[in-house]
Amino acid sequence: MAAKFGFSEGYWWQFLIALSERFAACPVYIGPFSDGPPDVLVDWKIIFAADGKKLGIVGRDMIATDKTWLQGAQGNLEKFVGEAQLERAALVTRLAHSASGALGTPAFPLVVSDQPQTAARTAFELLTE
Questions:
Q1: What's this model's pTM, rounded to 2 decimal places?
Q2: DSSP state of 87
Q3: How many whole angstroms separate alpha carbon 96 and alpha carbon 51?
Q4: What are the extents of the domains in the chain?
């Protein structure tokens, strides 16, 4: 499994380790994920527990930032929060682009960073504030 996440130099492995260090705990759940073509992470759910609350992450290698895509992502994140009974969740991605040129503003916690340490710090702050 570690090899799928890029052990030891890969983005998602470094992100997971950095986030675990911030929570000072291992995740309580690491879900299966889907690879899109070619080897693009499209959906990976992680749950941490902190102060009696369950907090979630959805990881994706890339997202679109147009309004329609962001609305769909918000719906998916809300579904994850409800089904997993989370206090809150954030979408974390390495890359964001807009095919239409129309940039939307997300109404949910979103972290865009190609630096795994920065992404982990920002996600932790968004989830625990």
A1: 0.89
A2: S
A3: 32
A4: 11-128
DSSP 75: H
Q: Which tokens belong to 125?
A: 């702050």
Question: DSSP string of 26-55?
Answer: --SEEEEEEEETTTEEEEEEEEEEETTEEE
Nearest to 61 by CA among 81, 36, 79, 80: 36
Calculate the CA dihedral of residues 75, 80, 83, 89 and round it to 10 degrees.
Answer: -110
Is the model more confident about 7 or about 48? 48
Joined together, the tokens standing for residue 127 give 């989830």
Residue 24 region by backbone torsions, left for phi larger than 0, else alpha for psi between -120 and 50, else beta: left
| pLDDT tens digits, 59-70 | 999 998 888 888
**Cβ partners under 8 Å of residue 80, min gap 6:** 45, 56, 58, 86, 89
**65 alpha carbon, distance to own chain's centre:** 15
